[in-house]
Amino acid sequence: MDFKGVIMHWYDKNKRILPWRTTKNPYNIWLSEIMLQQTRVEQGLPYYLKFTEKYPTVFDLAQASEEEVLKLWQGLGYYSRARNLHTTAKKVAFEFDGNFPDNYKDLKQLKGVGDYTASAIASICYNEITPVVDGNVYRVLARFYGIDLPINSTEGVKYFKSLAEELIDTQDPGTYNQALMEFGAKQCKPQSPDCSICELQSKCVAFNKNEISLLPVKLKKTKVKKRYFNYLIITDDKKTVLQQRTKKDIWLNLYEFPLIETSSAIKIDDLIKHEDFLKHTKGYTFDVNLYNEESKVHKLSHQHIYTQFWIVTLQSELKNGISVDNVRDYPVPVLIANFVEEFGFNS
What we know:
Low-confidence stretches: none
Radius of gyration: 24 Å
CATH topology of the largest domain: Endonuclease III, domain 1
Number of helices: 15
């Protein structure tokens, strides 16, 4: 069986029509690849369209403020991608005169561009013979060849990269890379793939050994850390308080309400004695009410955030702060955005 031929033939018949597939402009390819890291096409596509409408060139993106970029990115998650995106846009625009590097090695020097993204851009835009290996590719190769090496082990990463290099179409590496990724996304799905219509079925080791659900193999993830966030919604009904996260942690440079992080969920009696609460409410008379009786759980890759929102209503005018009408103008984590929507700020 000609593995490459089957994949390319399948792609020709089944590929999705996506805007970044109608161009070889490295700006567009780079933008789409950064957005689709750890993100499904269905979720990333609206963001790609928003970004290319507002920032049609790398110069437009470079000239934007980081806050504007984060706001447009809001809801897509993994915000370090957005910060790296902006950093690289400025480097390409201002240091390289708008020209992206034209090879894998130099592309990989850009902030936020790793092996996968550099391979995708180099092969699609510049026809460089360099294979992409993402989650979809790991899955197809592991199943078809019956490989049980963990895909997130050092040995596994090297083995799959080497195999991908052997298989790549040297005449049209860009199309082949896209075809293999698309095949994994649409045909060889993680859960319940329809093997009855798969053109690789007869030679697929996993299918013939009934091991589809067992491959690929992945080492267990790092233990999930639990964190307990208490947000203070300090308001006099006209103004409220937002703060920017500046420490090296999740959501760097995004905004949030004043936060008290504790080792476990706390009661109101403990909250109002906390030194950070006293700092924020000093000099005010206020009422405090818990907005959500049950903690809202926000799940990140290695962290689960258990969140309580405390409404601190002041009996006098808030001395500093922002208008409640402007809360939605700030880039915030989706956890905060959902609360703002639910609570009715600026609705």
